[in-house]
């Protein structure tokens, strides 16, 4: 999935107030996005650790806009590509 794809999804869902936050799925665990890192045509969404606060939706959207053509990855231990998403209880799960 590319950043522009996620931006399109968010622009529709945010207008309808269907999504309040983005979470990353790792097996059966859901974790909020704690950091975004861009490098080598990749935008990596890194899961929060411990008491680390989640990144605000505004910051996520800004980074997606700045890196529209980058491929999206999620990371808890090692980066893995994001292929899609689903909505669940006002959360967008990647």
How would you describe this protein?
With 94 residues, this protein is α/β, with parallel strands linked by helices. It contains two helices and seven strands. It has a seven-stranded mixed beta sheet. A hairpin with a 2-residue loop joins β2 and β3. The relative contact order is 0.30. The model has no long low-confidence stretch (mean pLDDT 91).
Question: Keywords, please?
Answer:
7 strands, 2 helices, alpha/beta, 94 residues
Mean pLDDT rating:
91
What fraction of the residues are assigned to beta strands by DSSP?
35-45%
Distance between the termini: 10 Å
The main pleated sheet reads as: 7 strands, mixed
Taken from the alpha-carbon principal axes, the silhouette is: globular
Contiguous uncertain segments of 5+ residues = none
Query: Based on helices, strands and strand pairing, what is the structural class?
Result: alpha/beta
How would you concisely characterize the structure shown here?
The protein contains 2 helices and 7 strands; from the N terminus they run αβββαββββ. The chain is an alpha/beta fold.
Topology:
Blueprint: H1 3-15, E1 21-26, E2 29-39, E3 42-47, H2 57-66, E4 71-75, E5 79-81, E6 86-88, E7 91-93
Parallel strand pairs: 1-7, 3-4
Antiparallel strand pairs: 1-2, 2-3, 4-5, 6-7
């Amino acid at each position: 999935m590319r950043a522009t794809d996620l931006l399109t999804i968010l622009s529709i869902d945010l207008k309808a107030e269907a999504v309040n936050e983005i979470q990353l799925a790792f097996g059966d665990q859901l974790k909020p996005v704690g950091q975004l890192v861009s490098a080598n045509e990749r935008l990596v969404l890194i899961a929060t650790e411990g008491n680390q606060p989640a990144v605000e939706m505004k910051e996520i959207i800004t980074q997606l806009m700045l890196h529209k053509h980058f491929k999206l990855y999620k990371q808890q231990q090692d980066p893995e590509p994001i292929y899609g998403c689903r909505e669940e209880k006002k959360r967008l799960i990647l």
